[in-house]
Design a protein that fits this description.
The protein has 362 residues and is an alpha/beta fold. 46% of the residues lie in helices and 17% in strands. Strands 3-2-1-4-5-6-7 form a seven-stranded parallel sheet, with helices on both faces. Strands 10-9-8-11-12-13 form a six-stranded parallel sheet, with helices on both faces. Helix 4 (88-101) packs parallel to helix 6. The chain is globular, with a radius of gyration of 21 Å. The two termini are 17 Å apart.
Length: 362
């Protein structure tokens, strides 16, 4: 089977790592090629697998004719049986182009329409939300199948249930050799993710400030990048909370494994998630989790972790959480939860079955 994978931004965040894991599994089972709409660090990783990449270098949403011509060039060279696309721009244009070219298409929907809208003020917020809803509507109308990465995302977003199914995200094979975690006193807290308002980095710092009031020995490592203006704002938040010697913005790190292994608790107070791969990675490393009380995270994160609602920090709830961490019991439960629910081989076999189903469908 010939499978063409299409992605807009080949960065190294959740959806990109998701695609990379798929490529690792599928390259020994199918003939595959990748098409990207721009340059990015994922390209060199894919090339290291010996996979051909076509970067069509088209940044604008409105360069429809240019995109179509370059897609047709790749189609003529590779002649795919199935096109599997990721990220909003790619799933939207591939749903149009594959329909015109009479090609079978699968679209993986990673993004909750509410998530990108959070970063904007009203009324632009409404426009961004409706724009992403429109994309999903068109994709569900035109694609052969739409894959959602969680039940919560599918239930709140999907319109055509007959075309939609859930194939969960998974624990990446790069984390397979993790050993059982020994209990340690909770000293080092960890945040991993984009540094943007919708990810709640400011709220993480302020919440950590409450923990710091109870224990002056704790530290918080923040891993990730974001706009310069927001990073400047976060540093002001750190100073205003007198946390300069306890909160460290480390930037993007290639060796994220090092920080998972050296940390004691994972904390992320995101305002919205489509899935949240970092929570799976953190639980796989035995880290107890402090997270926002969202439907999607109630699905993804084991129930004995600490979910933070609108009232924010509660001293009694936090102390109860620390008690649950004692002796490493919660760490063990988190690791078992990930092993059972987010198995890489199981989810990849479901995807392979879907390819076969779509290929023989009329």
């Amino acid at each position: 089977m010939r499978v063409l994978y299409v992605i807009d931004r080949p960065n190294l965040f959740g959806s990109e790592q998701h695609l990379f894991d798929i490529l690792q599994y599928q390259k020994v089972r199918n003939e595959i090629v990748v098409m990207t709409f721009r340059n990015g660090p994922l390209i060199s990783k894919i090339e290291s697998l010996g996979i051909t990449i076509y970067n069509i270098d088209c940044l604008s949403w409105f360069a429809l004719l240019k995109l179509y011509k370059r897609f047709k060039m790749v189609e003529r060279l590779f002649r795919p049986d199935i096109v599997h696309s990721h990220q909003p721009k790619a799933i939207f244009y591939m749903s149009l182009f594959c329909r015109l070219a009479n090609l079978k298409q699968i679209a993986t929907i990673h993004t909750d329409p509410k998530a990108p809208a959070v970063n904007y003020a009203f009324p632009l917020k409404i426009f961004i939300y409706l724009f992403h809803r429109f994309i999903i509507l068109i994709v569900e109308l035109l694609a052969n199948k739409c894959v959602y990465v969680s039940n919560a995302l599918m239930n709140q977003t999907s319109i055509y249930s007959k075309k939609s199914l859930v194939i969960h995200n998974w624990l990446s094979p790069r984390f397979y050799s993790i050993e059982k975690r020994n209990f340690r006193k909770c000293v080092t807290y960890l945040y991993v993710g984009s540094l943007i308002p919708s990810k709640g980095t400011k709220e993480v710092i302020e919440f950590f400030g409450k923990i710091h009031e109870l224990d002056k020995n704790v530290i918080l490592n923040i891993i990730g990048n974001g706009p310069v203006e927001y990073l400047t704002y976060l540093r002001k938040v750190i100073i205003s909370n007198r946390l300069e010697s306890s909160v460290f913005i480390r930037g993007y790190q290639d060796d994220i494994e090092k920080y998972y292994l050296e940390s004691d608790v994972f904390i992320s107070l995101t305002r919205g998630e489509s899935f949240g791969l970092v929570f799976i990675e953190a639980m796989a490393h035995g880290l107890p989790i402090i997270c926002s009380d969202l439907k999607i995270l109630r699905e993804v994160v084991f129930s004995e972790n600490l979910f933070i609602g609108k009232k924010g920090f509660d001293k009694d709830e936090f102390i109860s959480f620390l008690n649950r961490i004692e002796n490493g019991a919660l760490s063990d439960k988190n690791q078992k939860w990930v092993e059972q629910k987010y198995n890489y081989d199981l989810q990849q076999s479901l995807l392979s079955n879907l390819y076969n189903e779509v290929l023989i469908s009329k």
